[in-house]
């Protein structure tokens, strides 16, 4: 039997796996995709294409193992991609944990993009790795929710440094950050209960309700009673968080919104009582309350379309009230 | 239809899910299990049992959704656990990203156990979450590898602060940290190639080889040529890393090992040239070289037992030589 050189094996591996590897990373949200591709050496910080530095050692072992088991190397491409994505996840987190500044002769992802974004890119890659091997719809639902969760948190971080956050993007962010996992909870529960295609209505129910939950959470972060919430009064405003009522106020084109923007732009401490009043005068509170009501109603419509008379549906109504009518 | 109160729904949820939730967390390595249980409010920093603070809202939605779909709540317990573990993963990482100091009225996990350990606990919980829903052997192989990977990295961090690291524990750590993923690469490739029960031999092959790889890596970290490795000479020693040759030297009961221990215990800078000589005189280098050879041989035996004459087996031999005979 002829022995193939290592460089031939590795170049064949890259030929067979590169497209699928790229496709998996392309499925991440733009910011996390950019970080994952930077980490893989596909482009530099600005997105200018570069020569990949990774050797794809682990994928080569996966493909060779498939051949050793008597099959074509192609059969193991998903396994190879899953392992390489897991390796990338691990290195991204490792560099944060060890505080390493360079990897493969370039700045580590956390030094280039910040700790939060690098961690989230790793998390999203792990979810993507698992999804390569998933042959159950349930695993796919969960990994997609994790992907959305990471995308939402990544956008949340990016918004803190951005001057032009519009309310539509902010709602998308909140839906991903808070709605995706509640949507998965409901959809997975319904699937386990045999809902089949109707399980998508439970997903919508959970996502819409999750967004309502976030709106309530944001209102409590500004106007909640510290004795009940356990957080200092106005802590979100003190931290200049761009929560939903704040973004509604900032984009309201009202004098109060403009004044709030000036307070948020300053370096000095914020008078949280005054800032809360500005959000209210700019209509941020009324909008958030109305939007929470709309989203809750939309959630209920989705649910009632598929299971109006089941005992669990009444429980879901009760739980929905619990989280949208809470004061802490 | 009688409406059940939220508190009844939530307490029923806890009754149905607590045992399975605990069992999932119990499957983590001891250090990460401790952090996950602390985060869930099951015990305090010292492991003294506490009253859980979490409301299990998401699991309640999952169970209620199963009932709304017409099934028994019990059918959705794995879905409920998967979602709760995902939520815990996300909060553990969130607290690191946001730098939050308290959660549910106690110190956040990263402030109590360090950033690295808290991140790894989150990673391990995400893998465990997915494994609740996995009905494919492949997903299970990958999530177990991730669990091992996190356990190994957690042990690695713990070792840095520990005075009594023995070589057996250090080898286990390295097998988990480096061997687990290479083992999964080979096993998953073989499974994709139709290996069936024989795929376990590929797992052993990859794990043993991964350990050999780590031993070579550790030797290069001490005696590698900076021009080839791209790392400063003796960087592992300068950072007082307890790599495998170092631990072999420290536990050698030789005068050179004792002197090395004194250098590692001091706060002042280490003369890396002298330290490398001490590791060598204490037998650390010879041991590492011999152990790498033993592990490589063990890997080859496992492989040759199942596929001696397949073309891919020759590739695996070539790849094995590539990573155990490298100089960078």
Query: What proportion strand of chain A?
Result: under 5%
Q: Which residues of chain A sit in consecutive blocks of at least 5 with pLDDT less than 50?
A: none
Largest interface here, residues on each chain?
A-B, 98 and 99 residues
What structural class should be given to the helix and strand makeup of chain A? Answer: mainly alpha
> Could you tell me the number of beta strands of chain A?
2
Helical fraction of chain A equals over 70%
Give the overall average pLDDT of chain A.
93
**Total count of helical runs of at least 4 residues of chain A:** 16
Principal-axis shape of chain A equals flat
* CATH superfamily descriptor of the largest domain in chain A: Farnesyl Diphosphate Synthase
Briefly, what CATH class of the largest domain in chain A?
Mainly Alpha
Commentary on this structure:
- The structure is a homodimer of 328-residue chains.
- Chain A is mainly α.
- The first copy, chain A, has two domains: 1-133, Farnesyl Diphosphate Synthase, CATH 1.10.600; 163-328, Farnesyl Diphosphate Synthase (Orthogonal Bundle).
- Chain A has helices at residues 6-26, 30-39, 57-68, 77-98, 109-113, 115-133, 137-160, 167-192, 199-223, 226-229, 235-238, 244-250, 255-265, 272-281, 284-306, 311-324, and strands at 102-103, 106-107.
- In chain A, strands 1-2 form a two-stranded antiparallel ribbon.
- In chain A, β1 and β2 form a beta hairpin.
- At the A-B interface, α3, α4, α6, α7 and α8 of A face α3, α4, α6, α7 and α8 of B.
